[in-house]
Amino acid sequence: MSAVARAIWFIESHFEHDLSLEEISDAAGLSRYHLSRVFGLVNGHSISGYIRGRRLSRAVPALVVGSSTILEVALAAGYGSHEAFTRAFRDQFGMTPDAVRRQGHARNLVLLEPIRMDPARLNDLEPPRFETLQPMLFAGLQEIYPYGGNAAIPSLWQKFNAHFGHIPGQKGNVAYGICTHIDGEAEKFRYMAAVEISDAGDLPPDFTTLKLPGQRYVVFSHRGHVSGIPLTMHRIFDTWWPTSGLEHGDTPDMFERYDERFDPYTGMGVTEIWLPIKE
Fold first, then answer.
1. What is the pTM of this model?
2. Which of 68, 139, 175, 267 sits CB 3.0–4.6 Å from 226 for a disulfide?
């Protein structure tokens, strides 16, 4: 796993909070000096510029919608005053937050999207195991992403992790990343950061629920940084699945299972990839 990919994942997972270069470089496994140079050469942004651009870009929808005051948007973006936010926003986009609010859209702004992480080559797949699960009820935060747009998923986990551990009805300390297809949609998918729950009562207002049927799964282990999961998935479907004789189940497309072997702060550890199969 490349150091830059680790740094990007760490920033995307934590940029709504104060971040130091030392924390980022520790997560990347490089010195602060080396990471600063490599990050800029590879991505065309300084680390601080990337964090600033991501925070300001995330603030734009709140300005357009207009449900919060500009000061509230500024504070949520990590700025201590309306003035400081306005200066940074104008430097980033060439216009003020007030002007964006007045025009009511952001079509003329060039937002900074998450940098796509390109993990390095992975080891060969470990032999999978097979499991049968009973029906399960999940609750969590869900977003729709374009295929190939998984670079934004860490920010969803950043929001979800603020709830993890005190979600009403939560069963155990295991988190799930659940991918499901959208009927009639070939370019986008749903991704849900979730936990298993015993019932759907009294959940946070922005939570949604999903019930999966009882079925059989083939289970693979991904070891290393979480940003390498897409390559593991590619390895599964490119080399293992075509010769397996298995037929993929209907729902979900797959889910990731994160237990005590995974560290959500660093993104390192063991992630299980569960794929439903028809019997």
1. 0.74
2. 267
The pLDDT value given to residue 99 = 95
Residue 95 token pair: 């216009």
Q: What is the mean pLDDT of residues 205-218?
A: 96
Of 214, 211, 207, the residue nearest 198 (C-alpha): 211
Residue 67: left (phi > 0), alpha (psi -120 to 50), or beta? alpha
18-41 pLDDT, tens digit per residue, is: 899 999 999 988 888 778 877 876
Which tens digit of pLDDT belongs to each residue from 193-204? Answer: 999 999 988 899
Q: Which residues pair with 220 in a beta bridge?
A: 273
Topology of domain 129-277 in CATH is: Multidrug-efflux Transporter 1 Regulator Bmrr; Chain A (3.20.80)
Residue 42 to residues 26, 61, 205, Cα–Cα distance (Å): 18, 28, 40
Distance CA 108, CA 165 (A): 41
Kindly report the length of the chain. Answer: 279
Q: Considering all CA atoms of the chain, what is the largest pairwise distance in Å, rounded to the nearest integer?
A: 62
Q: Which residues contact 196 (CB under 8 A, 6 or more apart)?
A: 136, 137, 138, 170, 171, 172, 174, 176
